[in-house]
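[Solved] Which block belongs to which protein?

Original post:
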Amino acid sequence: MGFTKTVVQEGSGPTPIAGQTVTVHCTGYGKDGNLEEKFWSTKDPGQEPFAFKVGLGQVIKGWDESVIKMKLGEKSTIDCTPDYGYGAQGFPAWGIQPNSRLIFEIEVLSIS
């Protein structure tokens, strides 16, 4: 179990190290078990890019382990098995069912 990362656009900058703040654009798919159904996007009206300290467990495992391998400017698709997403509890507020596979489109905007 885990994740697969497919690079959509190569980045040209450095990769982050654990503890650095990474700011990303992200769109997540898998609402109600449908991998074509979006449950959240930083590109939606009223939303902003999402920032977190990578490698410290502040986000789901699929994000932590994939984003730390992404270069600045890179756009990738991350396909997460349930144990690398929200697991057995799911995330009902976003329509993510227990044990759901999730797909994320992630773009690394900045590393600091």
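(Second protein starts here: sequence line, then its structure tokens.)
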Amino acid sequence: SDDASKLEMIQKRVSNGDADAIYHLGNKYEYGYLGLPKDVTRAIELMAEAAELESVEAHYNLGVTYYYGDDVEEDKPRGIRHWQEASMKGHVLSRHFLGVAEYNQGNRELAVQHFMISA
């Protein structure tokens, strides 16, 4: 099937240590796409591996997952650290979420700085 060929292509790239492919495979496990079972634990493991390989999308996704407690125990500091990693590599949406986090903590001036950088 088409899903099987897509999955085979992704897995080939994963076996070569491609951070984007590892993140992509994690995303497929997160939602149970391409015929894979929905497995959030495996998804987070793969995204953490991709983040270690400098995937900004993996850092962003892990930031959302931990900050908001999506399918894991909420860990706001851990989520913020992932957004900081992605932001330092130019990920605009991560910078925006850092602004939201600062705003929620009452740090309006710092929030505005993050929002300005992300605009």
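Accepted answer:
You had them paired correctly. Confirming on the second one: Residues 66 and 72 are 7 Å apart (CA to CA).
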